[in-house]
Design a protein that fits this description.
This protein has 139 residues and is an alpha/beta fold. The protein has 5 helices and 5 strands; from the N terminus they run E-H-E-E-E-H-H-E-H-H.
Length: 139
């Protein structure tokens, strides 16, 4: 799995998953925003600045650009249709909502055949509905 993201809750969740699941996660981002302290328990987590690391990943996840970044620092890390075309055809791209088109993801990437944003959003709705149902049962 490739995660194009600064250190964030989304990335941390995937890093923690490497301790319990047989998955490997690579954070691809400028070094300034790499995860600084990943415990040794997370042996299947690594960091890189090379977008080429994403070519053979099954899943690609993105998160929003950090507030302290300038577009010039991150433009090479934008996910575009061209980036997705260089990946395996059986891979999935899951941009983390809310998606900022023109920043972490280009408009053409959102229309790419490997983009699973609709499915990801549908899953979130199930989780939100379950939380609401539980809340109303408690009240």
């Amino acid at each position: 799995m490739g995660v194009v993201s600064p250190e964030s809750n989304i990335l941390r969740s995937w890093i923690e998953a490497t301790a319990a699941l047989p998955i490997t996660v690579v954070q691809v981002y400028p070094e300034k925003w790499h995860v600084k302290a990943a415990p040794m328990a997370y042996r299947r987590f690594s960091t890189s600045t090379d977008m080429g690391e994403l070519a053979d990943t099954d899943i690609l996840v993105t998160d929003c650009w950090p507030d302290d970044a300038t577009p010039a620092e991150l433009e090479g890390y934008q996910i575009t249709a061209a980036v997705l075309d260089r990946r395996r055809s059986d891979s999935d791209f899951i941009p983390c909502p809310p998606v900022s088109r023109g920043e972490e993801v280009s408009a053409d990437a959102m229309l790419h055949p490997t983009c699973r944003v609709v499915e990801a959003k549908a899953f979130l709705l199930h989780a939100q509905n379950a939380a609401l149902e539980w809340t109303f049962e408690v009240i």
